[in-house]
Amino acid sequence: MKKILLSFAALALLICACQQNSVRYTQNSPEIDTVKKLIANYDSKNYDTSMYADTSKTYYNSNDNAMSAAQTMDYHRESEVNYASRGFKSDHQEYEMVVTDDGETWVNCWLQWRCTLAANGKEIAVPVHLTLQFVDGKIVKEYGYWDPTEIVLELQKIEAEAKMMEEEQTE
Question: What is the SS3 assignment for 58?
C-alpha cells in the first residue's frame, strides 16, 4: 500500500512539474496580444510606450545603435514626412511566442508593410520581421529587420529630380 501511495505521489509531482513549464511555443499568448497592440498603435499613429520596460532597447536593421522606447517613437514620427500613408497589411500576419532553453520569452512576427510615398504617390510593399523579448509582460528588447532599399532609392530619385529642377530654374 505504501508503494502505491508513493507511486501516486511521484506521478502527481511529475504531472505538476510538466504542466508548469510545458509551454515553449505558442501562437496565442498575452505577449503576442501586446505585439498586436503595438502594431495597431503604429498603424493608427498612437506612439504609446507603456508596453516597453523603462530600460528597453530597440534595434532596427542593426545589432548596434540601440534606441529607447521614446527614441523609437521619435524615429517613427520623423519618418512620417515621407509617406502619404503607411502601415501593416492586416492579412498574412504570423505570430509566435517561444521560450528559449535559457527561459527567455520572445515573440516573433512576420508582417507585410506598405506605404504610399508622399512626393510621388508610388506604392511600395516590404516584408518585415520583428522579434521582441519580454520580461514580466514588458518589452525589454526589440529587433526589426527589413530591406529598405526600394524606399531609399525612390527617395534619392525624388531628391535628385527636385535638385535638377531647382538648378534648371536658377539658370
Answer: strand
DSSP label of 148: -
Q: Which residues are registered as beta bridge partners of 154? A: none
CATH fold for the domain made of 24-170: Nuclear Transport Factor 2; Chain: A, (3.10.450)
- Domain boundaries defined on the chain: 24-170
Return the beta strands (E) in the chain as ranges: 25-26, 52-60, 83-88, 94-99, 105-117, 123-135, 138-146
Q: What is the CB-side half-sphere exposure of residue 161 using CA atoms within 13 A?
A: 8
Written as tens digits, the pLDDT of the chain (171 aa) is: 566 655 555 555 445 445 555 689 999 999 999 999 999 999 999 999 999 999 999 999 999 999 999 999 999 999 999 999 999 999 989 999 999 999 999 999 999 999 999 999 999 999 999 999 999 999 999 999 999 999 999 999 999 988 888 888 877
Alpha-carbon span 125 to 106, nearest angstrom = 26
Which helix (DSSP H) or strand (DSSP E) does residue 9 occupy?
helix 2-20
Query: For residue 107, how far is the Cα from the chain centroid?
Result: 9
Q: Vertex 154, ends 89 and 125: CA angle to 5°?
A: 15
